[in-house]
Predict the structure.
Amino acid sequence: MSVLLPMEKFPALEAVPGITHAFLGRVAGLDVKVDREQALERLELFHRDAREKSGLSRRYFLVGEQVHGREVAVVDEGTAAPVPAVDGLITASPKVCLGIYVADCCAVYLVDPVKRVIGLLHSGRKGSELGITAVAIGRMRSQFHSDPADIIVQLSPCIRPPNYEVDFAALITEQANAAGVTQVYDCGTCTGANPDRYYSYRLEKGKTGRMLALLALND
């Protein structure tokens, strides 16, 4: 495909064996000044190509409905997509690739390399204030016996002050720490300050594309 799709990797996750991750940015020159569903349709070929280049094309691709809430679902290759009424997905299945779409909100990656469990969350202002990160860590503890001290949390690019009035990245970090996580990594990048690299719902007044966060366990 001739158009370059920026694909970021995060050092903290690159250092973890047995997982594949990526964060897909803005497609240069693609018209996405449309509503969300139309934008995702226009981005689908690029996102599918990125999954193929990441070795994830044969995984069952799972996304949530993303309703700006705090609900988190435990999923596997038998789960129907999109998962209704959730903003977070957790899996222990290497047959699954988790996906979260964002445009200013934060994609929160959770990896427990000991229990081999991963999670991916959509956490904007509302989700962060509702404590979705703490909910997800709690589910990892209750269903997979994860020790929070083993969990690695990585925050994606998201909108931040002064381009937004609430520092929800700080809220996510605080919630992870309060839940017992000691390995929290924030890339620190503001989507609102980098419109050439990322889609920004606020700057583009709702008519824009979506970045895609990907996370999967390897066999």
